[in-house]
Specification:
Number of strands: 7
Order of helices and strands: HHHHHEEEHEHHHEEE
Strand order of the largest sheet: 1-2-3-4-5
Helix content: 40-55%
CATH topology of the largest domain: Trna Endonuclease, Chain: A, domain 1
Shape: elongated
Structural class: alpha/beta
Radius of gyration: 25 Å
CATH architecture of the largest domain: 3-Layer(aba) Sandwich
Number of domains: 2
Strand content: 15-25%
Number of helices: 9
CATH class of the largest domain: Alpha Beta
Largest sheet: 5 strands, mixed
Length: 262
């Protein structure tokens, strides 16, 4: 983030509203001194949340950009996205789904592409999937998934599929950051995508009954053969001190492995 430019922009927007620094500070819930530091480009020690609140008070939105090796970061994110898509495609195909990837569409003036569009011939079920290795702007993401679910049946019919139910799933890389971001919008997520990973995976295995709309967390881990594997957390079981003549002398029991759900 260019702090100097950010500060000049905040000052210009404040002037446009006719506010004093104290007015902006009161509206954003920060001190007037902090507003002054932001406008002078000296906000390097302030939290991103404080900067976002100041921008939000002016009707703007603050974005933090991360740059790395030119376009290297974009390639890295694309790779993570591609691995998630590959995992989902393999899982669905193994369960009897016919799968389309990056399905472009132009319906009623709406254009775009669906990350994964899958059809279950036996159950005549359609699944519209949006894949995110990282969670971007929440409203745009949810709006985009809703729009793609609306045009999904028409796209399916163009492919010769005849769905009777349509499910929506947001596939997200299972990381602490992604879970934290989604939890920050918990009420919105539950209203739009109420189903959880277990419900989604259960329906995908045998798509009968009401089609769910939900979030599907996937641990994007691969083995040397390229196939998905489960991560294991190893916890050593604590043993009691050795007591002569007791049954717990010598080597303690082996550590236990706890598998994390993928």
């Amino acid at each position: 983030m260019d702090l100097g430019r950010f500060g000049r922009a905040i000052r210009a927007l404040r002037f446009r509203r006719g506010w004093r620094q104290v007015d902006l500070a009161s509206e954003a819930g920060v001190s007037r001194t902090q507003v002054g530091r932001i406008e002078r480009g000296e906000s390097g020690t302030m939290t991103v949340d404080a900067l976002a609140r100041v921008a939000g008070a002016l009707g703007a939105r603050a974005e933090l950009r991360l740059l790395w090796h030119g376009e290297g970061l974009d390639r890295l994110l694309d790779e993570a996205h591609a691995r998630l898509v590959e995992w989902v495609v393999r899982r669905l195909q193994a369960l009897g789904w016919v799968v389309g990837v990056e399905v472009s569409f132009s319906q009623n003036g709406e254009r775009g592409s669906i990350d994964v569009l899958a059809f279950h011939p036996e159950r005549r079920a359609l699944l519209v999937i949006e894949v995110k290795s990282v969670t971007p702007d929440m409203q745009a993401m949810l709006g985009g998934l809703d729009r793609k679910a609306r045009v999904g049946p028409a796209i399916a019919r163009e492919r010769g599929w005849d769905p009777v139910t349509v499910a929506r799933a947001l596939v997200v890389g299972d990381t602490r950051t992604n879970r934290r971001r989604l939890e920050a919008h918990d009420a919105t997520i539950r209203a739009v995508l109420p189903a959880g990973t277990r419900e989604i995976t259960r329906w995908v295995t045998d798509p009968v009954g009401p089609a769910p709309a939900g979030v599907w967390f996937v641990s994007d881990v691969r083995g040397a053969d390229g196939n998905p594997v489960r991560r294991h957390r190893v916890r050593a079981r604590r043993t009691r001190p050795s007591v002569p003549g007791s049954s717990n002398s010598g080597i303690g029991p082996p550590g236990v492995h706890k598998a994390e759900a993928s």
